[in-house]
Amino acid sequence: MRKILKKYSNKTKAAFILLVIMLIIIMSNFNTLRNSKNVNENINAIYNDRLVVAYYIFQYDNELHLIKAEAQKASLNNDYRDEKIKNALRTIHTIDDLYVKTVLTPKEKSYFEAFLDFCSEIENQTANKNWNLVLKSSNEALTTLNHLSEIQVREGKSKLASANAMHSGNNTLGQLEIALLVVLGGITFYLLIIKKTKRNIKIPESPSLN
């Protein structure tokens, strides 16, 4: 290996190292850009698929508690109670289409379908004026919402942890790039300033014939 290296001048070796460092910096830059894109996607997912959905769940929860309250007021006129519950269900159904458009995990999708089934049961039981079953289905729907809320927290934490890990990776790559640029500057300085020392060879004078 030493014999091979001796074949090349110091400037050639420095130029080769310079090329390697440039390639490493370019690859590091591509990796940083990819990480930045992934971080941005994770942040968007946290907002669009987790924080926004958490607000939908909050709205669902409010409407279901209203339905429970109406189902428990036995003294109220049935038609009045029926109308209040139907209004709450209409509000719930306006949120359904928005919820479905978000990214759902398989487990989340399963719970959401169960929630929709409970809402359909509430609608049928309200039409039949079966308030005890309305109350029961409302409680089951609220339990399902709790499961959905727990999924939101877990998925949000997972996305945030992934974004933080990529951000940390970008910082490490940034520090590596700075170190490589310092080395790059040193090699560039060497190539521009340092010159190979030339030896002056003295040619002896020819002997005098005198």
The CATH class designation is Mainly Alpha
Q: Which value, in Å, is the CA radius of gyration?
A: 36 Å
Q: Provide the helix percentage.
A: over 70%
Examine the coordinates and then state which fold CATH places here, giving the name of the CATH topology.
Four Helix Bundle (Hemerythrin (Met), subunit A)
Elements, N to C (H/E): HHHHH
Count, helices: 5
Strand content: under 5%
* Count of all domains: 1
Query: What is the terminal separation in angstroms?
Result: 55 Å
Q: What would you say this structure looks like, in words?
A:
It contains five helices and no strands. The chain has 210 residues and is mostly helical. It has a single domain (10-190), classed as Four Helix Bundle (Hemerythrin (Met), subunit A) (Up-down Bundle).
Protein traits:
mainly alpha, rod-shaped, 5 helices, 0% strand, single chain, Four Helix Bundle (Hemerythrin (Met), subunit A)
Quick summary:
This protein is an all-alpha fold and 210 residues long.
List the helices and strands and how they pair.
Layout: H1 2-6, H2 10-72, H3 78-100, H4 106-127, H5 131-193
